[in-house]
């Protein structure tokens, strides 16, 4: 994996782009160690604070500080962890298209922005501290009315950033 990501990162860098690995299946400190070992300008991080909260229980604010130099994009998504879960089992279920075998409703819940465990004031402040000036891409994959949730998320972020 290390060699493959190094090759991918070097190719991305040669093309003037960054291949971004999304946070979630591992703790931020683990991901940083891997990225340090890859040692390529073409590998970065798509920071997803909800994935960290929901699956690993990692603190997204501290994760921004840990992964700072690698962050090239961030999702604006929120969630809560409902019970202990094995990140390997969760992400393998998605990778194998076999999510029926897991009861996600007992593990975690993606919720509308601002209604979960992500501390948005602190998260946005941490992004500012590291000099992040990129996009906050709203991601809403579930819910009864994702379009309405996205509209509310836009207003939520506008109020926080104003």
Structure description:
- With 162 residues, the chain is of the alpha/beta class.
- The chain is built from eight helices and six strands.
- It is globular.
- The termini are far apart.
- 31% of the residues are buried.
Mind sketching the topology for me?
Layout: H1 2-14, E1 19-22, H2 28-38, E2 43-47, H3 49-56, H4 60-67, E3 71-76, E4 78-81, H5 87-95, H6 104-107, E5 108-111, H7 120-129, E6 136-138, H8 146-161
Parallel strand pairs: 1-2, 2-3, 3-6
Antiparallel strand pairs: 4-5
Task: Give the low-confidence spans.
Answer: none
Percent of residues in helices comes to 40-55%
Total of helices: 8
**Class in CATH?**
Alpha Beta
CATH architecture grouping: Alpha-Beta Barrel
Distance between the termini: 41 Å
- In N-to-C order, the SSE pattern is HEHEHHEEHHEHEH
Strand content: 15-25%
| Principal-axis shape | globular
Largest sheet: 4 strands, parallel
Based on helices, strands and strand pairing, what is the structural class? alpha/beta
Radius of gyration: 16 Å
The number of domains:
1
Query: Which homologous superfamily in CATH is the superfamily?
Result: Divalent-metal-dependent TIM barrel enzymes
CATH fold name? TIM Barrel
Mean pLDDT: 93
Spatial order of the strands in the main sheet? 1-2-3-6
- Give the number of DSSP strands: 6
């Amino acid at each position: 994996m290390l060699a493959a990501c190094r090759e991918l990162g070097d190719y991305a860098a040669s093309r003037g782009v960054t291949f971004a690995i999304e946070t979630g299946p591992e703790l931020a400190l683990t991901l940083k160690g891997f990225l340090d070992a890859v040692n390529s300008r073409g590998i970065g991080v798509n920071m997803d604070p909800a994935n960290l909260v929901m699956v690993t229980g990692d603190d997204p604010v501290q994760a921004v500080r840990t992964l700072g130099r690698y962050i090239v994009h961030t999702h604006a998504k929120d969630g809560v962890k409902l019970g202990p879960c094995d990140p390997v089992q969760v992400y393998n279920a998605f990778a194998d298209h076999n999510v029926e075998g897991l009861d996600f409703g007992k593990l975690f819940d993606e919720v509308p922005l601002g209604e979960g465990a992500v501390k948005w004031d602190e998260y946005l402040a941490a992004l500012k501290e590291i000099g992040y000036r990129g996009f906050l891409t709203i991601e809403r994959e579930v819910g009864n009315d994702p379009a309405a949730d996205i509209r509310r998320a836009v207003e939520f972020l506008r109020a926080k950033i104003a």
